[in-house]
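Case study 2.
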Amino acid sequence: MTTSEQDQRREDKHNKAMAKQKARVDAGIEAARTERGVAVLVTGNGKGKTSSAFGMVMRALGYGMKVGVVQFIKGEQLSGEEIYLREHCPQVDFYQMGTGFTWDTQDRSGDIAAARATWVEAARMLADPAYDLVVLDELTYMIAYDYLPEADIIAALRGRPLGQSVVVTGRGGGAALQDVMDTVAEVKDIRHAYNAGIKARKGVDY
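Prediction:
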């Protein structure tokens, strides 16, 4: 077999494989007929859960959508996402619990009170059809630490307006939360610079 014949065979094999893949993709698109908002959970022990959520924020803003962001736990140290949104995206409603990490506060009752006040804002957004996308960053910890009633969270997620999408981030969260989500993605930690003694980097880690 000549080189040109081998090349043609590879070309034919590739084209057949791509045709099959296109058929599968087209069939999947055709089967997806339901038009409604989706609930996404980004969980796992790896880096990038919040970054993924803010990527969806930027995507929604590109289409001129109304976005609400509620951050649980974080808040004492400014992040690049917060700085950018506050300075350049006034149309985004941004609310932070503001107490910092629970291992810093050492104040369970104070953390619970702050979590409940923050949940009022989150529940308001989840009930408002004006919001196309709501991000609930680190919400899973509020369930894991028993700061907020799980049943209230599940009910609010289930009862949100039909066209509204929601993104929840954080490790764990439990089976009940996963059951109510349309998409569940796990970020796996393979290696992290911090474990090698490298300091968190501005613009990369925060």
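Residues 3-31 form the longest helix (29 residues).
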